[in-house]
Amino acid sequence: MLGYVRKNISEVEYHTWFAPVRPLGVQQGSLVLGVRNSFAQEWFRKHYLELLEDALRSMGAQSPQVSFQVLPAVQDAMILPQDPPPRSPSSSNGRSSPERGERGSIPQGVTDSRKALNPKYIFENFVVGPNNNLAHAAALAVAESPGKAYNPLFIYGDVGLGKTHLMHAVGHYMAERYPDKRIEYVSTESFTNDLINAIRDDKMTQFRNRYRSVDLLLVDDIQFLAGKERTQEEFFHTFNALYENHKQIILSSDRPPKDIQTLEGRLRSRFEWGLITDIQSPEFETRVAILKMNAEHHRMNIPQEVLELIARQVTSNIRELEGALMRVVAFASLNNVPFSRAVAAKALSNVFAPQEVKVEMADVLRAVAGHYNIPPDAIRGSGRVREVVVPRQMAMYLIRELTGHSLPEIGGFFGRDHSTVMHAVQKVTEQLGRDSELTEAAAFLKRRLQGLEGDDS
Ligand code: ADP
Ligand code: MG
């Protein structure tokens, strides 16, 4: 069937879309295809349904039907058209698990080995920026001295910012160096389900053995413990057993422990024993770096200005950032056009609203001058004293973050060359998260320039 498809579309298109697809079987007379994420699912429905039905007809099907299902194991994976097909869940731990596709269920219990770790979530694939450098450093420290550096390590942040990626990275790091160590990655939901099953099947001893005999326990999305008393109780004992034996625990959550409602006090205080670190939304430069890495994985040569355009459209969630890149790649390949800003803008136009507030360089200059209480001309002038250098760097940084101007254009506005601008942007970026005054000024000015904060001066 894929042969038929291949003959009818371009090679790039085939590799982008069809190479990673997995036939999952026939369900109520309909062919079920496994796709990598919900974006691909939508894309297939829109663009390839007829082609696939034709393909089935060419094989003699009378009234062909095709449906799509997102493959859970690779839902988060980066977009790699040349990826090998994901491994099947039933082979991952030797136990028989329900067939994937049956009632659309995600197989439970595929958690008790390092095989549950996503192979792409390694330190080498993690782009470090001011938004995540503390969490990254802490994860690395824990990976290097498990049970000794920080225990537990608690990583929190909004969805799609890399918490799961960092946890898996620690798992891979340890697995590689200490092949005999036991590593357990589990979502809080799976932990809860395992507990419920263990109670039902009278297998609490096995449950406890499993979770209390590991060297590294990674528990994802621990905020879901909220309100689950029995699970909290069991997790409390698991925690203590591991902690007393100096086994490393890493927890992730969408919020800090103090904000998890209905979490028992004794658990909350334990979560605070080690190190609590957060991940924020990535800065523009970090977003571009992440896109660049993704593009390189694709072996796609996408011009910098196109990556920058995408990075400007999607600002808060890295999964969406990757989705946007995928959309641009798909759009260009389907229309057989080279990557350009115009093509990228078109590809993203019906997904992301154009930037609401258009910020001009002069607006930024004015706002920065007002904030630091110095004349705009002094910022653009040649003075080198700290009082003007800091605001100048801030202005360059904000223009880079908030407007579509290139480094040479910004340089031109300040009567300087692009390398000066690049240096200024780097300088400010490095100081973010370290210099609190500068961090606050940057955040405040950004909000004001984007119209999120009133002008009260
Ligand atoms: P979370 O668990 O915080 O919701 P994930 O760890 O699932 O987020 O990350 C979402 C996606 O973004 C994943 O594909 C992940 O690889 C990618 N990602 C997140 N942070 C980074 C980063 N710093 N560098 C590269 N990719 C990242
Ligand atoms: Mg996650």
UniProtKB/TrEMBL annotation:
<feature type="domain" description="AAA+ ATPase">
    <location>
        <begin position="149"/>
        <end position="277"/>
    </location>
</feature>
<dbReference type="Pfam" id="PF08299">
    <property type="entry name" value="Bac_DnaA_C"/>
</dbReference>
<dbReference type="InterPro" id="IPR003593">
    <property type="entry name" value="AAA+_ATPase"/>
</dbReference>
<dbReference type="InterPro" id="IPR001957">
    <property type="entry name" value="Chromosome_initiator_DnaA"/>
</dbReference>
<keyword id="KW-0238">DNA-binding</keyword>
<keyword id="KW-0963">Cytoplasm</keyword>
<dbReference type="InterPro" id="IPR010921">
    <property type="entry name" value="Trp_repressor/repl_initiator"/>
</dbReference>
<dbReference type="InterPro" id="IPR013317">
    <property type="entry name" value="DnaA_dom"/>
</dbReference>
<feature type="region of interest" description="Domain IV, binds dsDNA">
    <location>
        <begin position="333"/>
        <end position="457"/>
    </location>
</feature>
<dbReference type="Pfam" id="PF11638">
    <property type="entry name" value="DnaA_N"/>
</dbReference>
<dbReference type="InterPro" id="IPR038454">
    <property type="entry name" value="DnaA_N_sf"/>
</dbReference>
<dbReference type="InterPro" id="IPR013159">
    <property type="entry name" value="DnaA_C"/>
</dbReference>
<protein>
    <recommendedName>
        <fullName>Chromosomal replication initiator protein DnaA</fullName>
    </recommendedName>
</protein>
<dbReference type="InterPro" id="IPR027417">
    <property type="entry name" value="P-loop_NTPase"/>
</dbReference>
<comment type="subunit">
    <text>Oligomerizes as a right-handed, spiral filament on DNA at oriC.</text>
</comment>
<feature type="binding site">
    <location>
        <position position="163"/>
    </location>
    <ligand>
        <name>ATP</name>
    </ligand>
</feature>
<comment type="similarity">
    <text>Belongs to the DnaA family.</text>
</comment>
<dbReference type="InterPro" id="IPR020591">
    <property type="entry name" value="Chromosome_initiator_DnaA-like"/>
</dbReference>
<dbReference type="InterPro" id="IPR024633">
    <property type="entry name" value="DnaA_N_dom"/>
</dbReference>
<keyword id="KW-0547">Nucleotide-binding</keyword>
<feature type="binding site">
    <location>
        <position position="162"/>
    </location>
    <ligand>
        <name>ATP</name>
    </ligand>
</feature>
<dbReference type="Pfam" id="PF00308">
    <property type="entry name" value="Bac_DnaA"/>
</dbReference>
<keyword id="KW-0067">ATP-binding</keyword>
<feature type="region of interest" description="Domain I, interacts with DnaA modulators">
    <location>
        <begin position="1"/>
        <end position="77"/>
    </location>
</feature>
<dbReference type="InterPro" id="IPR018312">
    <property type="entry name" value="Chromosome_initiator_DnaA_CS"/>
</dbReference>
<feature type="domain" description="Chromosomal replication initiator DnaA C-terminal">
    <location>
        <begin position="360"/>
        <end position="428"/>
    </location>
</feature>
<feature type="region of interest" description="Domain III, AAA+ region">
    <location>
        <begin position="116"/>
        <end position="332"/>
    </location>
</feature>
<feature type="region of interest" description="Disordered">
    <location>
        <begin position="79"/>
        <end position="112"/>
    </location>
</feature>
<keyword id="KW-0235">DNA replication</keyword>
<feature type="binding site">
    <location>
        <position position="160"/>
    </location>
    <ligand>
        <name>ATP</name>
    </ligand>
</feature>
<comment type="function">
    <text>Plays an essential role in the initiation and regulation of chromosomal replication. ATP-DnaA binds to the origin of replication (oriC) to initiate formation of the DNA replication initiation complex once per cell cycle. Binds the DnaA box (a 9 base pair repeat at the origin) and separates the double-stranded (ds)DNA. Forms a right-handed helical filament on oriC DNA; dsDNA binds to the exterior of the filament while single-stranded (ss)DNA is stabiized in the filament's interior.</text>
</comment>
<keyword id="KW-0446">Lipid-binding</keyword>
<feature type="binding site">
    <location>
        <position position="164"/>
    </location>
    <ligand>
        <name>ATP</name>
    </ligand>
</feature>
